Each structure stands twice: as C-alpha cells, then as structure tokens.
Amino acid sequence: MSQTHPEMHERRILHTELMWSFGVGIFVAASLSMILFTAFTISVNPPSNVERLDPKTLHLSGEFAEHNLGTTVGSDGSVTVRAIATQFMFLPRCIVVPANRRVTLRFASPDVIHGLLITGTNVNTMVVPGFVSQVHTEFTRAGDLLMPCHEYCGLGHSEMWATVQVMAQDEFKPGSDGRISCAQR
Amino acid sequence: MQSDTSSAADSPFDAADDIDETALADVMRSVPLGAAVLAGTAVALLVLGYLAVYLLVFIPRGTVG
User: How many angstroms separate the CA atoms of A24 and A20, rounded?
Assistant: First the structure.
C-alpha cells in the first residue's frame, strides 16, 4: 500500500473543512448584514435606556407615584404608559393603549428583578430595581393582550400578569386631564 | 472473558487489521462529502427556521426600542 493514501485523505478532509468554514463565514456575514440593514433602515434595535431612580421611594412622589400610573396622553399627543412591576402584580393591572399609534411604555420595580412581554408583539424587557425600563412600540390590532411577568420573582410569580387593552383610534378618548383607563367590559 | 474461538471482530483493534486498504480508500473518498451533506442539510434547516421566524414573525410585529 502506498503511503500517499493517508495524506490524500487528509487533504480531502482539509478541503472539506475549509469549504465548510467558507460557508459558515458567508452565513455569519449575511446574518450580520441583515441585522445591520434592518437596524439602519427600519430601526430594529433592542430597547436601550439607562435612566436611574430610587426604588425605595419611587411610589412616594415623582413619575411613578400612584396618581401618575396608567396611560397619559400629553399635550403633543404622545401616549405614555407608566406601570410598576412589584411582587406579585403590575400596577395598574390593566393598561389601555391606542392602536396604530406610537406608544412609550415605562416600567419600574421597587423590589426585585421582574420582566415582561406583551403577547403577539416584540415588547419584551427586564424591569430592574433602580432603573426605568422604556420600550417604544406601535400596536397594530385592537384587542386584549396578555402581559405576564417572565422573570421568576418569587412564589407568586405565576400569578403576576396584566392586560393590555388595545383600542381602535376612534374608541381611544382620554379625559380632559389626558388620562384614560381600561374600559369595563 | 475471551474464548479461544473468538473472531478477530471481537476486538476493534483486531477488526481494524482485517480492513482492506483499498476498500478503506474507497470509503474515505466519499466520507468528507457525506459529512458535508449531512451537516449542511442540518444547518440549512436550522437557518431556514431562523429566517422564517425572523422574516415572517419578528419583522411584521414591528420595531421596539
């Protein structure tokens, strides 16, 4: 048996591995290009907001005091939702938002790390004590959506969820103070 | 315990001695291609699944940030 056979096999295997590496390189480059393309063209980015607040006093005054929680429509028409994630509930337990309109969601936690997602949307964030979690989104369909806590926060974690009531534009009518709460059905 | 009548194939080391080098060369000629096809098919299915979720679910749901 000639000694060239093992070397030939090794060359062939090396060739296959190089081809595989080339294919993987193409895939990685294509994935990164797609991520960059969608980031620059349609602003697909992870939510990023670094904003501190004191978790020990957030319920006493300021933005996350009880009377500020819920949905507020500003004088410029901007819709902002403020909610607290706490063991083991969201306050308020029902959030109302308009459909097909940009909404700013702001969350804070006074106790432990929570997380939330809104079903059928890309809203998905952690709520870390000491920071404000902020997500901008636009809800495209009217209806009730589930918003559960998705970060284990204690024994009552599985009971911690809220409802997001997405209203059609013509049903979304805030009061003179710009506040609106969930419709009773 | 090994019996006196054991065949060479009982031990992988003994069995290796029985393999014809020419047959081994024939097999080795197609092994890299087979491995590439198998791994390529598996990875292609994974990539297709990722692309389907990304393009048909994630992007239509709109942006957050």
Answer: 6
Contacts of residue A164, Cβ cutoff 8 Å, sequence gap at least 6? A94, A95, A96, A97, A118, A139, A144, A145, A146, A147
**Contact (CB<8Å) B61/A122:** yes
Q: Hey, are the CB atoms on A136 and B40 less than 8 Å from each other?
A: no
Question: Where is A9: in which H helix or E strand?
Answer: helix A4-42
Dump pLDDT digits (tens) for B31-62.
888 888 999 999 999 999 999 999 899 988 88
Smallest Cβ–Cβ distance between A44 and the set B43, B47, B63 belongs to B63
The answer to whether position B65 is within a domain reads no
Tell me which residue in B25, B29, B65 faces A45 most closely, judged by beta carbons: B65
* Residue B54 lies inside a defined structural domain of this protein: yes
Nearest by CB: A1 against B21, B28, B33: B21
Answer yes or no: do B40 and A23 touch at CB < 8 A: yes
Query: Cβ–Cβ of A1/B33 closer than 8 Å?
Result: no
Check CB contact under 8 Å for B28 and A12.
Answer: yes
Domain count, chain B: 1
Q: Answer whether residue B33 is part of any domain.
A: yes
Each residue's pLDDT, cut to its tens digit, for chain A (185 residues) gives 444 567 777 888 888 889 989 999 998 999 999 989 988 988 888 877 888 999 999 888 889 999 999 999 998 989 999 999 999 999 999 999 999 999 999 999 999 999 999 999 999 999 999 999 999 999 999 999 999 999 999 999 999 999 999 999 899 989 989 999 887 65
In 3D space, the residue among A8, A176, A64 whose CA is nearest the CA of residue B25 turns out to be: A8
Asked whether this complex has an ipTM greater than 0.90, the answer is no
Provide the residue range defining the domain that includes B32: 8-58
